[in-house]
Amino acid sequence: MNLAETQRAFGAWLHTGAAPRFGGRARAGLRVYRNTYRAQLAACLEESFPHTLRWIGGEAFHAAIVAHVTHVPPSSWTLDAYARDFPETLGMLYPADPEVAELATIERALGDAFVGADAAPVSAAMLADVDWDRAVLRLTPTLDLVPATTNATAIWRALDAGEIPPPAELLADPATILIWRQDLMSCFRTIDTAEEQAIRRARAGSPFAALCAALVDAHGAEDGVALAGNYLGRWLADGLITDIEGDEPCER
Q: What is the distance between the alpha carbons of residues 188 and 251, in angstroms, rounded to a whole number?
């Protein structure tokens, strides 16, 4: 075999266990290498999803790890990225228990937010000269919106506090979880459909005036204006707004 063929054979064996075309003397060392490789992947998943592990138990979590490592090889140069597809594996393994995949999705998103790009938030004191007819809000790059159909957020909070988690249950209506990093802490909260749509409009570059108009159209003049003001205040308090563009960028 030339070098390229050797590398392909080694990769196939490492990911699938297919018999490698190497001499018998190499097999013992190869087994040690493969066990070490899989142990590193397993450790990555255990570290990334501690609450999910506690929720389903060590034995079930280990079985999920085996399934994931067997069918999903790493696709990035960094081991941190390997955890990103694990919630999808859990969704396939636990189709009747959707809170399992949703709990893992929350953990994955919180981890992604923690290592996301830095962006300093604007402060309320910097808003005096903003032309709100032209203003475009720029939101933090760590922001993520995660769909929810279960009480996975309540389960996460209880597990994080070392308390007995509530039984899993479906939400009366599907919701959205807003996840971001504020200072050095990853945060999340459940938001309603109106706020989700407002955030999506803002993130897509819609001017704040257009966002307000959409809220007025949907909720009436009084309630729409009140919602726009409430959202703006909450987004500022949460550190979600990192810039306000209009005639000139907002100075921090």
A: 27
Structure tokens at 70: 């067997």
Whole-angstrom distance, CA of residue 149 vs CA of residue 221: 31
| Radius of gyration (C-alpha) of the chain in whole angstroms | 23
pLDDT tens series, the chain, 252 aa: 566 665 565 566 555 555 556 655 555 556 655 666 767 778 889 999 999 999 999 999 999 998 998 887 766 566 667 788 999 999 999 999 999 999 999 999 999 999 999 999 998 778 888 999 999 999 999 999 999 999 999 999 999 999 999 999 999 999 999 999 999 999 999 999 999 999 999 999 999 999 999 999 999 999 999 999 999 999 999 999 999 987 444 444
Q: Model-level pTM?
A: 0.82
Say how far apart CA 36 and CA 198 lie, in whole Å: 47
Instruction: Answer yes or no: are the C-beta atoms of 188 and 144 closer than 8 Å.
Output: no
Would you say how long the chain is, in residues? 252
